[in-house]
């Protein structure tokens, strides 16, 4: 009895054809599925291995780059501190030699006192109850009331200390002028005679009276630095008690009484000839801006940033973007002591991961997650410790090791890794798709062939069965030799063709896997080469920009040059939009002749910064060559710059104006922004320069366009010079700051010192800008006639 399934009739007793189809078809299907499955599994495994290998390589390279960046930045901070240490030790060495050789000390002190009487001659202030030398000296000497006799003259031992410290006037100016920039250098006497001699000259005692009432009634060291002097005395008795084997003692950042800036002080104690007691100190101050400048210049990937922190977690330096990301909150210590510091601790961070961040894991990559708008963003952090120093905060001196940290989002530093992984994944998916299609097509062909030959079974079925078993054993080289030309013979021919097809597809599948494996290996090698090139290019570009920025800052006028101008009080500020700016300002002095220049190169960045350095060099050369004609000076400078622009094939040029001042007459020449003059009484006058020249570098000869104009500049008058980075700065609504706001700000601030006016204008400008990006270089120069 037969059963009917669909259109097929299957006998109740299985026919030979049914058995043939079942056995051969099942064997071929099984073989294809196993072979195809193994091939797919191998491809996926190869893809995972390649992804893992590429990922590990790129991850190691990225982390090595961050660690190298942290090492180099920490080295820059350490170099700054070492240079300041060296200068303080130099000054201390000179003073210690004076103390150790009393006879030579007396001779040198008397000689210096005779050559510059103003350096030791003091005037008594009955209101403040202190004595101080008059302005005009190299240094300022402050002698507190309890160090004066009944006639308001220094006690004999105090007078001797004044002569001993006179040597500071010989050494300190050169140390301030050379080496790393320092705010001031000074000598302070021992606890029983704490006279204060500081270079450069400032209104020292007057400032202390204003800010710290009652300081003259208490001992200087106990009032301003409690516990510090006692630590040094302990060192004298037991040198091994020093926390760090060095005499240099550093303070935590605090607000300077004289300048109002956040500074760090470095003290080197002086010892008595028998080395059993303290005989005073030599010291120097640097502004926190110098340390912050190194840290704020850190740029890793797009938004990576750096920070400098004390061991207690107090952040000394960080840029505004980084401070916002890690959620720092700062508060100023407003105690009644002379040193008021900044409290901006990681422990107060709104980010829990940073509040508990270990700072003692030197050079180790740490993974943290920070909250950004409700989302957890993974970051990498590496902390590098700076060489330890002796630190005073309040009380005994302690050991301190500051740390330099680098923070960068993982999505930015691993961008190339994610891209490579995605590309490998896409290639793997393509291979898998091709293999599945090949297996499906092979299966269809084999199935059709089995059904075709099953109809032609003859007596040679045994040979076909044997051959089928060999096919099942993956011997695709088998062939059936049937001599007959009947249906069985034809079945043998069909079987042979089937075996050839299977062999062909199997070999092609292996070749396809080999080709894709080779492509993945080549892609991995290309990614590695590109990553190496990218790392090298980043290092090269960073080094070039750092050198250009340092050169640009080196040629700017120093504070002591500005302070040396007797009739004028000058304050200046420049902030580049990029690492290297295109703004120019300079104050050149040759005897009584003074030349003040200000200019703005088109654009900003490296090319603009180089052109600015060319202008500074040519202007200095012309000034030193004795060129006094303003029009000829400007035309000669233009001709030189024009030739350099042609040689370098750049399209840059600049607006440029000069003010020539000989002590009586002020002459304006060149084309730049309006000159702002605030007269006594607060009247503001704007002087246009459009008809006084032509942009420098546009034409080889601009003599026919250059003109001059005399400007009245008397006692009490104030001049404000600026670049368009000030007036074209935008607020959040895209509105410009404008010349009118600048004039109003200058008029409102008139009456203060040049430095106060400049600081006030900048504070007003930055408040107006807010969180907007600064698109152009900002330069501001304020001159006040004394």
TrEMBL record:
**CDD domains assigned:** HAMP (cd06225)
Domain HAMP positions: 455-507
| One Pfam family, short name | SpoIIE
- List, alphabetically, the InterPro entries matched: Bact_Sigma-Reg (IPR052016), HAMP_dom (IPR003660), PPM-type-like_dom_sf (IPR036457), PPM-type_phosphatase-like_dom (IPR001932)
Taking the record's annotation, the residue ranges forming a coiled coil are 506-540
Q: Which Gene3D superfamilies match?
A: 6.10.340.10, PAS domain, PPM-type phosphatase domain
Q: Transmembrane segments in this chain: where?
A: 20-41, 431-453
Alphabetically list the UniProt keywords: Coiled coil, Hydrolase, Membrane, Transmembrane, Transmembrane helix
Record flagged with keyword Membrane? yes
Domain of life according to the entry: Bacteria
Q: Which PANTHER family match?
A: STAGE II SPORULATION PROTEIN E, STAGE II SPORULATION PROTEIN E-RELATED
Q: What is this protein called?
A: SpoIIE family protein phosphatase
Q: Which organism is it from?
A: Rhizobium calliandrae
